[in-house]
Amino acid sequence: MKNKLFLILALLMPSLVVRAGDINIIPMPQDIVAGEGYFPLTATTQLAWNGAEAKQTALFFAEKLKTATGREIKIVKLKKNPQKQLSKGSFITFTIDKTIEGDEAYRLIVTPERIQASASTGSGLFYALQSLLQLCPPDIENQAPLKTSATWNIPAVTINDAPRFPYRGFHLDPCRHFLPVAAVKKQLDMLATYKINKMHFHLTEDQGWRIEIKKYPELLKYGARRTEAEGNIYEGYYTQDDIRDIVAYAAERHIEVIPELEMPGHELAAISAYPELSCRGDSITPRIIWGVEDIVMCPGKEAMFTFLQNVIDEMVQLFPSQYFHIGGDESPRKEWAKCPRCQARMKELGYTREAQLQDYVIERVSAYLATKGKRIIGWNEILEGGNLQRDAIVMSWWSEEGAIAAARKNHQVIMTPSSHGLYFDHYQGDPINEPTSIGGYAPLEKVYSYNPIPEELRGTPSEKLVLGVQANNWSEYTLGPAQLENRLYPRALALAEIAWTQPEKKHFRDFCRRLDGDASLRLNAHHINYNIPQPEIPGVSSNRLAFTDRTKITLTTTRPMSIIYTTDGTTPTTHSKRYTAPIDISRSCQLKTAVILPTGQIGNVRTISIQKQTCSPAAKIKTAQPGLKTKIYYGKVRKPDDIKRISSSKDTIINHLEQLRTFTHVSPDVRGVEDYAAVAEGYINIPADGVYEFTSTNSQIYIDGALQIDNSRVFAPRDTRQNLELALSAGYHKLKVVFIGGIFGGWPTYWNDAKLRFRPSRGEWTDVGENMLYH
Ligand code: ACM
Ligand code: ZN
Questions:
Q1: For residue 155, how many other CB atoms are within 10 A of its CB?
Q2: Residue burial 558-595, b: 16+ Cβ < 10 Å; e: rest
Q3: CA atoms within 13 A on the CB side of 730
Q4: How do strand 766-767 and strand 700-703 relate by DSSP bridges?
Q5: Burial, 124: exposed, middle or buried (Cβ in 10 Å; 0-12, 13-18, 19+)?
Q6: Residue 622 and residue 63: Cα distance in Å, rounded?
Q7: How far apart are CA 408 and CA 401, in angstroms?
Q8: Which one of the ligands is nearest to 361 CA?
Q9: What value, to the nearest 5°, has the Cα angle with vertex 533 and ends 528 and 535?
Q10: Residue 329 Cβ contacting ligand 1 at under 6 Å
Q11: Ligand nearest to the CA of 303
C-alpha cells in the first residue's frame, strides 16, 4: 500500500525522484551521489561568479544557453557575503574555492534551490560546467536556438570529481590529409566537453609541411603541396594566424595544443623545399605514398640544426605549451651510414652506431628547446640511442613496451599504444562496413577496456610516471573531417573515460547506455558524423552470399545494440523486425539490416544479397596446360578500360598469381616505376561441388565469364570489400584476373600480394595455387 502511494506520488510529481537515466555524464565522475528533486532552470535563473576565471566559465555557459535557446541569462558578481543575494532568486554559482584539492578537480552540487560549481582553478570550474551541461537536456548542445521556453529540470546531485591522469590527449595529423581550421575547432569544442585537455598537432611530414614559417617561405611553396599519382595537386597549410586562432580557441576550452616538429625522419616535405637538409641534397618532391621514407635529415650538417632552431624559434612563439613534440619515430639510418658528413660527425663524437646520431639530434634539439622553457616529448624510438636525457617524455606507440622501458629509466610516459586500441585510424568493426583504413582492429570495447597503466608498472612507484593517455588519428586513409569524425567518435568518448575515470568506476555496459541514450543526441546536435556500428556476420566479411539449399544468417554487433532487419527489399524502419535469433533463409533475398539506438535513431543500413544458386557447371575442355596465359601491357593504366589504349603487349604464362606483380622493378620509394597492367586468363580447377567464398585485392576477377570482384573503383585497393560466394561444380571454370600496377590513394598495388584466395563453406582460406590454374 505504502509503495503504491509512493508510486502514485512519483507519477504525479515526477520531479521529485532523480532517475538513474537522468545522469549520463561522460567521463564518469569519481564520486556522484544522486539527490532528490530537480533544479528548474528558467528564464529568471541567474549566473553568479567570484573571480575572473569563474566569470569566464559563467560567460561560457551563458553563451551556450544563448546559442541553444536564444535566452540571455543574467550574469552577476557574487557579493562578499552572498547569503542575502542568493536567497532572492534562482542562482547557479561559479566560484573559485582554493580549498578544493587538485588542479582539475571540482565540486558540483545541484539542489532544487541552487546549483553550485566550485574548483580551485579555472580548469576545474570548466569541468564542473561540462558535467553540469551533461545534466542539462541534450538540447543545450543545439547549434541554433530552439523555439521553446520550456523549463529545464536539472537532477539534484552532488559530484566530487578529479581526473585519474593529467594528460588526456588526442592527436591530429593534417599532413597526409589536411583539416581546415573550422574542422579542428569543431573537434576541440566537442572533445573539451569530455574533459580532454591536450591536442597533439602533428604538423610536418614526408607528405606535407603544414605550418607557415616566415623565415622559410619555400616550405609552403614546395613542401605544402604534392602531385598525387591520380594527377591532382593536394595542398593545404595553416598560416601563423590560423595557428594562433586554433591555440586560443583550444585555450578557452582548457586544451593545451602541443605542436610536433618531426625530426630527423618524416621530413621529406621540408627536404623538398630545402634539399641541403638531407645527406645527399636530394632534389625531390613530397612523398605521394604512405609508409616510411628512407631520405631523412642529415645530422652531419650544421645546416640541419640551424634550420630546426629557426623553425623552433617561430613555433615557440605560437604554442605556449610547456611541451614540444620532436617526433623521432621511423627514421631509417641507411643514408647516414653512407654519408661522409654523418660518418665524420660520428667519428668526432666517438660514436660507433648510427642510432647514437639519433640521440645526438634529440639531445641538441631538446637542449635548444630547454632554453625556450620547453620539455620534449618524442615517440618511443627516441629511447633507441640509449642515452636519452632524463626529462624527455616518451610516447609509447608500438605497444606498452616503450613505456615500460622508459619508466624503468625514470622517464615520464604517455600511453598511445597501437596494440591496445589507441590508434583510431584502425578499423572499429568489420571492414565490410567501413571506409578503407590502414588496418588494425580497435573497436569501442577494446579502447574502453584499456588501462593506461601497464600491468608491469601497476602498484610500483613507476606508475606515477604515466602522465596519461592519447589516441592518434593518422590520416593516410582519413580523407577529411567527415571521416575523421567517424573514426574519432564515439571512441574518443571511451578515451575520455579511460583517461579521467578510475578503473573501478568503469563499466562498459553503463558507458554504452550513456553513449547511446544521451551522448548520441549531443553529438547529433553538433552534427558530428559519429560511427554507429552496423550488423556483422560472424566470420564472414561479405555482402554477397550464396547457398544451395537453405541457410541461416547470424547477426552481431561490436557492442550491445538492437538490430532490425527486413528481407523484402524495403529499408528497415522502427517498425521492422528485431533480430533475436539466426534468420532462416530458403529463397534468394536482400537482407537489409541496421542497428537502432534507444533514441529510435537508425544507423546506416547494410544490404546483403543472399542468393540461392545451383552449382554452375564446369567447362568441358579436353586438355589443359598448367598456368594462365598472361598479357602484360606496359604504360599508365588507371582502370581496366585504359588497357584497350595500349596496343602492344608481352605474352607469358604464369603459374602463380603472385607473379602478376613482378613485371617491373619496384624501388622502396616506388619512384620512377614503369607501370603496367597484366591480364591472366585460363581456368580455375574447382576441387568439389560447393559454395566457395573468393577474395582478392587485384583490380578485377572474372569467373565463368562474369565480373565477380571489382576493386577497380575503390579508393585504395589495399584490401577488398568485394568478397563473394559462388556455388560451383567440380571441374574447370573460366578465370580472368586483371592486375593494375600503380599508386591508388597513396597505396602502391605492387605492395598487394596479387593472390586470389578461396574457402569452401566458411572453412579455411587457401591461396588459389599452381595446382588449380590451367589454360
Ligand atoms: C607513428 O605512428 N609513426 C608514431
Ligand atoms: Zn648525412
A1: 22
A2: bbebebbbbbeeeebeeebeebeeebebeeebebbbbb
A3: 3
A4: unpaired
A5: buried
A6: 81
A7: 11
A8: 2
A9: 150
A10: yes
A11: 2
Residue 472, C-alpha cell as written in the block: 592518434
Q: Is 744 helix (H, G, I), strand (E, B) or coil?
A: strand
User: What pLDDT score was predicted for residue 435?
Assistant: 92
In this model, does residue 420 exceed pLDDT 50?
yes
366-408 tens-digit pLDDT: 999 999 999 999 999 999 988 888 899 999 999 999 999 999 9
> In the block, which residue shows the cell 660507433?
352
Question: Pick from 630, 656, 640: which is nearest to 744 by CA?
Answer: 640
**Cis preceding linkage at 454, omega within 30:** no
pLDDT at residue 716 in the model: 87
C-alpha cell at 512: 554504452
Nine-digit cell string for 587 = 529463397
Beta bridge partners of 112: none
Give the closest residue (by CA) to ligand 1 atom 2. 397
Distance 392 CA to ligand 2 centre (A): 25
Ligand 1 atom at shortest distance from the alpha carbon of 330 = 3
Helical segments of 501-652, H only: 508-514, 520-525
Instruction: Please give the DSSP secondary-structure letter assigned to residue 579.
Output: P
732 CB neighbour count, 10 Å cutoff: 18
Give the pairing type, strands 650-654 and 700-703: unpaired
pTM: 0.96
> From CA 220, how far away is CA 226, in angstroms rounded?
11
* Predicted local confidence at residue 7, as pLDDT: 43
Beta strands, E only, 238-278? 256-263
CA of 297 to the centre of ligand 2 (A): 7
Query: Helix (H, G, I), strand (E, B), or coil: what is residue 469?
Result: strand
Residue with cell 597526409: 176
Mutation test of ligand 1: which of 329, 377, 382 has the most ligand atoms closer than 8 Å to its C-beta?
329
